[in-house]
Amino acid sequence: MPPRPEARPASRRFDHGTLVVASHNPGKVREIADLLAPLGGPRVVSAGDLDLPEPEETGTTFIANAELKARAAAQASGHPALADDSGLEVRALEGAPGIYSARWGGPDRDFALAMSRVNRELGGTRDRRANFTCALSLAWPDGHVETFEGHVYGDLVWPPRGAKGFGYDPIFQPDGHAQTFAEMEPAAKHAMSHRAEAFRQLVAACFAPAR
User: Fold this and answer.
1) Fewest Cβ atoms closer than 10 Å to its Cβ: which of 54, 117, 180, 191?
2) Do the Cβ atoms of 206 and 144 come closer than 8 Å?
3) Of residues 49, 85, 142, 155, which has the active-site annotation?
4) How many CA atoms does the CB half-sphere of 201 hold within 13 Å?
């Protein structure tokens, strides 16, 4: 008989009072805090609140960068830390801007500039397919880390529409919807976003009551 596949080790459960969101991006911190709110458990503080340094993102994937940021914040703060690495992947641009999504906005991370660059590089192509990807990593001060990845697919629109989101939200229209992420109410976006998908996996593995 063939050997049985090894079972995946059980995820570590979160049982601390404070969780650091390892980001200095106010929009991202707000969105993660909104997703955490229904758990009613951890006190959420951001890396900006604690004046933690931003580590250089040297990874070549969303997962690598999320884990790097989570570990750095956990070790610096002494608390478990949750880090997100996310970005826009455009099919006609061979996945760009990808992990460089923020950097396409220049040194000031100007997403109006970044969105204009995406539209300019697409030119007259009819292929406007794109997806957002999010890697979420929860790290403990001892170096242990749990990581989950989510995606959401849609099309890019131009000109940008809406003012309720952040980043590339004004040009991303998810499949099955007539509004961009930036036109949607936050609760509607949170229910379907790439970050929400990764977060559901995280909650099931690390926050939901053990069965």
Assistant:
1) 191
2) no
3) 85
4) 16
Pick from 150, 211, 209: nearest CA to 13: 209
User: Which residue has tokens 């697919």?
Assistant: 153
189 is an annotated ligand-binding site residue? yes
Measured between alpha carbons, how far is residue 6 from residues 3, 9, 10, 160 in Å? 9, 9, 12, 48
Mean of pLDDT values over 108-121: 96
Question: What is the model's pTM?
Answer: 0.85
100 in a labelled binding site: no
Do the beta carbons of residue 3 and residue 197 sit within 8 Å? no
Q: Give the model confidence (pLDDT) of 125-183 as tens digits.
A: 999 999 999 999 999 999 999 999 999 999 999 999 999 988 999 999 999 999 999 99
Angle at 88 between CA 82 and CA 90, to 5 degrees: 155
Cβ-based burial of 9 (10 A; exposed 0-12, middle 13-18, buried ≥19): exposed
Active site residue 175: no
Question: Is omega for the bond preceding 159 within 30 degrees of 0, making it cis?
Answer: yes
Q: Is 162 annotated as a binding residue?
A: no
Domains and CATH numbers, the chain: 17-207 (3.90.950.10)
> 86 labelled as ligand-binding?
yes
